[in-house]
Amino acid sequence: MEYAIETFSLTKIFSDWWGRDRVYAVDDLNLQIRYNEVFGLLGPNGSGKTTTLKMLLGLLYPTKGKTLCLGGDVANPKISARIGFMPEESYLYRYLNARETLDFYGRLFGLPSKLRKMRIEALLDMVGLKAVANRPIGTFSKGMARRIALAQALINDPDLLMLDEPTTGLDPIGTRQIKDLILHLAKRGKTVLLCSHLLADVEDVCDRIAILYGGKIQSEGKVKELLQQTNKKQIITDYISDTALDKIKQIVRDEQADCVITSPMDKLETFFIRTVTTAQQLSSPTSGAISTTKIGHFLAPQAHPENILDELVSTSVSPEVPSKPPTTKQVIPAETPEPKPDEQLLSKLTEQAGPPESKPVVGTKPVEPQVSRKEDVKKSILDSLTGHSSTQKAGGEQTDKPQAGDSGNA
Amino acid sequence: MRSIWAVATNTLKQAVRMKIAVVFIILLIVLLPAMGVSMTGDGTLKGRLQTFVSYGFSLTSFLLSLLTIVVSVYSLTSDIQQKQIYTVLTKPIRRFQLLLGKLLGIILLDVALLVLFSAVIYAIIIYTPKFYKASQAERAQLDNEFFTARAGLIPPEVDVKQEADDTYNKLEETGQLPPDVTDNKISRENYKKNLEQSIKLGKRAVAVGHELVWEFHNVKPLDPNQSFFIRFKYDVSVNPPNLQVFSNWFAGDDRQLKYGAKVQTPIYSFERKDLIRTFHEIEVPADCVAEDGYLAVGFFNALLNNTVVIFPPEDGLEVLYKADTFTANFIRAVFLILFRLIFLACLGILASTFLSFPVAVLFCLTIFFTGIISGFCLESFDYLSKNLSSIYSYTVRPIVQLLPQFDKFSPTKFLVPARLLSWSLLAKVAFSLICIKAVLLWLVALLIFSYKEIAKVIV
Ligand SMILES: Nc1ncnc2c1ncn2[C@@H]1O[C@H](COP(=O)(O)OP(=O)(O)OP(=O)(O)O)[C@@H](O)[C@H]1O
Ligand SMILES: [Mg+2]
Fold this sequence. Notes:
The structure holds two protein chains of two kinds. By secondary structure, chain A is an alpha/beta fold. In chain A, 45% of the residues lie in helices and 15% in strands.
């Protein structure tokens, strides 16, 4: 039980009806994905990523070799109850509306109706489709359907999440959200297998990647180790004077090294998110998805997520709520260096949306219940977005920027 | 169980929201009342209702059969084609549960529609007589011959093989066999068969001044105060004047006479004059049936006649009695349709486990139509297999036997002549059509589907 996913010389050969025209879609693949790992499966079109996933999920049978998911066979309902799967296209029932779709999948998991309803609302909130939840999926745009497909994969709070090109068709905010979600899930000890050829996405979230070509692994390893250029260094500073710059240049020259100095560019992603959130704040009408960076509260990283789930289902929530902040306070400084006060607020708010007993807690804050809460959420989104991108990128961009600078240099 | 139910309700929603069912519903809701008004039959009230029942039931069962085939095939093939099945089967649901859920959904749909339409038909049947003027006699006829469920008893076929053998042996001993047989121009077997035939005919023929008595057991009229009917048809050796036969009939428990005891149940007798080669019914009060269900019916070929009277085999003589109410019979007839639909649903699911939508529909329709003419199919196959090798009769014949026999158990066959469709017959149909044939289909479907590579694309 060391690995969440393990394949043993997995091979899939497609042949036509006569047994001719053999395609080696997957060729002698040995994958080992540890628990609590975010694993990226990369590769050009037709390299066998989807085929591998289908074999892992029992939708295709291997020509040779075998697979283990969570230490067992996926045909076993006990195993598949812990797996979430988002296919490469959103295969959903066109005649069901968004809420019914999630309800259907929730019932396939045998979730009790109370828990199901709560999760559905949380997920709809998270993917920003609450306003259109009663429209049939057939009328959804590609990205909106994609969001439901994502929500569908998360309804059972899976231990192992398999995402096949999750970000295709999604707007940048959705993409950002999926990436955040993956990080959150990883923080909660979940395992994620991500197939994609959008390298930026993979790079941001994956611990380990494998690059497939022709059904074979061409290269595999930790992202940091694969990408770090140990012979180059990057310094990021706040605004400093030209004289200071000159001094730095001098120092570098003394080391017999080259040096380029530029102002870092904002990522287009950051810019886009800022623009859309501004528009949302001005409440321009949209019939599409409302962009949020919320994570469904039952998926959000917490100290004891399982207990919280139970607490949420049980009706006696009000005595529990005041006791929560201490636990989160204890954990957050220990595990995550950057403080996220907005998210705490956010998850608290979504929690309160469920049970009606939450009023006394609201009373302690200057926030008014129904109408103004929405605004408050939005504000906190904005805060978290801007706060997020500055604090988180500080860590991420250190590995990010050198390449940009280098390519400019070369 | 929960997941089966989830799939079932989803299947129902699909059928409703994709408006597959709507077309059929509208068609029937419009057609049924229209038929109720426009169909007149032979002009009598009874004829009108009989025509309506016949067409109404046939149409309903035909359209629902088509609907069931289309929905059951579409439900699974579209899941596979549009790949929703990827997201469904990766959830904790076993494959047999998915199929079971689909089947359950379709059956629920069928039950709902069947209840709706049979209620419409029933209401029309019940209310039609109230809107039409009819004579007292016509209404009585309606009550006796339509709004009832009559059981029919046919005198049991007598086994005359022994008798034929005896006759043959006697002829052989006395050397009276015809020369054709002794010369082997006619095989002994055939001659024996001819002998049997003629003995059988003799048992149904009555010479002038003679009497023929049939004994029936297990006659169980619903209400002893009502009547039962002796239904008969004459054949003759020589055409009588005016094509009419004079007769004396009697009905009752003739055992009382034999033992010389006091008569406890009445014995009725009727003097009649009837046209030959047409059906006639004699109404007899049911209190003459003995306690233990025994009834004797006697026919006396009156001396006025000039001909031997023959009762043709099968429908020459029958005792009809009211065994149940029309409503109960109607409900059982609806069940008959439901069984048919369940069978078709299983068939549709089986077909869609390995065929694409159009091919699967075609496949099911073929089976459905051969089921409708199964009598013909079985006969022709029997005829063929007589002339072919035993290999043939051991391979093709059992498969042909597995075909559903929709025509043999068509509900109109019972409702139009107001024949009793007994629970035991219903159970028999359920057993053969569902417990054997449908379950067999179901198992094959399960076998195919369990081993199917779902994501394998077949172009
Ligand atoms: N059902 C099938 N029958 C025949 N060949 C198939 C089938 N499914 C996939 N293939 C072949 O297997 C190879 C791998 O396909 P796969 O879908 O796994 O690629 P992928 O890595 O997911 O590509 P993409 O990035 O486009 O999604 C391709 O060459 C494809 O043509
Ligand atoms: Mg793919």
